[in-house]
Specification:
The chain contains one helix and five strands. It is mainly beta. The chain has one domain: SH3 type barrels (Roll). It starts with a helix and ends with a strand.
């Protein structure tokens, strides 16, 4: 893949809601604090634009990608091409 083909991947900023986990230990029910989801922003190359999800890679070379993340469509608040 040459630089022109690499450049053909859309660069996007995705604003989305991510899950959040608590500590990995026992917690007393009366001591529980709220654990709301986290609003996140991911920036990268759109390598898969499925109707159900979007997959973004942070880096693309002539034959490989690195740092992929798949975000379910139900979690996406906004997608902006950059």
């Amino acid at each position: 893949m040459d630089i022109e083909e690499i450049s053909s991947f859309k660069k996007v900023e995705i604003e989305w809601i991510d899950s959040k986990s608590g500590p990995n230990e026992w917690e007393y029910i009366e001591d529980l604090n709220p654990l709301p989801p986290v609003q996140s922003i991911t920036v990268g190359f759109l390598v898969d634009d499925s109707p159900d999800y979007k997959t973004v890679a942070s880096t693309i070379s002539d034959s490989q990608v690195h740092g992929r993340i798949t975000i379910p469509k139900a979690c996406i608040l906004n997608v902006k091409e950059i």
